[in-house]
Amino acid sequence: MNTAPPVPHEGAASNATDAASAAPSSPAFSPLYQQIKTLILQSLQAGEWKPSAAIPSEMELAARFKVSQGTVRKAIDELAAENLLVRRQGKGTFVATHAEQHVQYRFLRLFPNSGNLNSEGPAQRHIVDCKRIRAPADVAKALGLRSGDPVLQVRRVLSFQAIPTILEDLWLPGTPFKGLTVERLRGSDGPMYALFEAEFGVRMVRAEEKIRAVLPDRDQCTLLAVPVGAPLLSVERTAYTYNDVPMELRRGIYRTDTHYYRNNLS
Amino acid sequence: MNTAPPVPHEGAASNATDAASAAPSSPAFSPLYQQIKTLILQSLQAGEWKPSAAIPSEMELAARFKVSQGTVRKAIDELAAENLLVRRQGKGTFVATHAEQHVQYRFLRLFPNSGNLNSEGPAQRHIVDCKRIRAPADVAKALGLRSGDPVLQVRRVLSFQAIPTILEDLWLPGTPFKGLTVERLRGSDGPMYALFEAEFGVRMVRAEEKIRAVLPDRDQCTLLAVPVGAPLLSVERTAYTYNDVPMELRRGIYRTDTHYYRNNLS
DNA sequence: CAGTGGTCTAGACCACACT
DNA sequence: GTGTGGTCTAGACCACTGC
């Protein structure tokens, strides 16, 4: 370890045997475990370890990076806290995925008014539409593209216990998702983000949601089977892959008479 | 350290000099740092260290509990991650508070449509009402009381740039908040939770919010100056002190034409 | 300068899962 | 038993703050 430029730090204890560094005391200081974290992140991003697979053991990584186990540990701790890795005692450390059935919808915060999370069985997914279009200005901006760039637009409805509850429009950048079709979407039975991982190597890592109360337009009323004038929850989500690169814009409309959006504050 | 019953663990390295423990291998296992965490938590709860004050240094705590600095460190790390403590390098570790002007409203997730968080200056608070009542069934249930128990009911309006934006009703258990009056609420200029800390020793530690889209009733229209039929965000919050004891139920109605509710997912 | 939290190491042992 | 992550210690040194 200790080969990257931003290391005015010179290691600790027995780790201090670099050649004379270029800058004797540069302004930026980055702890070793942060550099390790970045390296692991790069391996994840490069697809060196596939989703749900185990990464090398802490000892192996420590040997590879020439640092102590504790330093690797702290790097992994942070990645696990960010839900990029999952630790399992006695088994190993694994690459997180959206395909685990434990947390079916990692990013969905909607819960039924009464009953547990799984008391109403799986959701029914219905893809209404999927087409390639030229990105409107707002979509392009959210995805870091230029207006007119090719994007995929998908519209779908999620139902719980046969009640249409969520209507979503989502936009994906055309290049990384080349080859995505209605058939492909309809053929998958898991979460959409699991399909993105498996088929396109795109892993959604975090997201931001902007929530508002709105009234539905005509189309939305029809698809959700709600009357005009019924208040609905508008959820605009931007989802990001590694390095905060936006990869999806999603505009959803939720019914909140049978369900509610839950948030935990601390 | 190592005096509490749930320690079938016998310490590590030089820390293993207990007398013969009662249970040779009881089922529950609690790591040392968890026990330290509990002890620190108890001191916080008991008010041994006041909000915004510094707690003893890691070395001091290590000596007090007869464990290594690293073990205290891990306990404090978790408490800091839960926002109960705040670490400041070179200065010390401090008890978190709602009275810091950095994070004016720690639990408020509402942001203006455009502009930064502080671009619209401080909120104007207006206490509409404050009275003692007997708890209705739903309020009692949320606060862990019995129906009819005395509770305080407060109604207030928050305005941003002179636009009434939030209308909130909140209920507080009567006993811990004995002596809370309209005057006292109006006399304070900081966040309400800061007042609760300073005047009643009640510290809100986490909260759960249930969010829905609703239409306002007559009263709400008047107080928020919005037309009937305008969709608004309903935010029901239960706030908890230590040990998950509920201490406040809050039902808020937010305008979401000028602002939006933000949530970060990961 | 001394005191605080922050990083890093090396080594020991524990709890858990597979084989 | 072997290998994995999890805990704990002891000691060193670094970075930041304030006297």
Topology:
Two copies of one chain form a homodimer.
Chain A: H1 32-45, H2 58-65, H3 69-81, E1 85-88, E2 92-95, E3 110-112, E4 124-134, H4 137-143, E5 150-160, E6 163-173, H5 182-187, H6 192-200, E7 206-214, H7 218-224, E8 232-240, E9 246-254, E10 259-265
Antiparallel strand pairs in A: 1-2, 3-10, 4-5, 5-6, 6-9, 7-8, 8-9
The structure holds a DNA duplex (19 and 19 nucleotides).
Q: CATH topology of the largest domain in chain A, what is it called?
A: Chorismate lyase
Strand/helix succession of chain A: HHHEEEEHEEHHEHEEE
Oligomer classification = homodimer
Uncertain regions of chain A: pLDDT < 50 for 5+ in a row? 2-26
User: Please, how many helices of chain A?
Assistant: 7
Strand order of the largest sheet of chain A: 4-5-6-9-8-7
The H-level CATH homologous superfamily of the largest domain in chain A, spelled out, is Chorismate lyase-like
In round numbers, the mean pLDDT of chain A is 89
Overall spatial form of chain A: globular
How many structural domains in the coordinates of chain A? Answer: 2
Share of helix among residues of chain A? 10-25%
Sheet with most strands of chain A: 6 strands, antiparallel
- Structural class of chain A, by secondary structure, is alpha+beta
What CATH architecture of the largest domain in chain A would you give? 3-Layer(aba) Sandwich
Radius of gyration of chain A: 22 Å
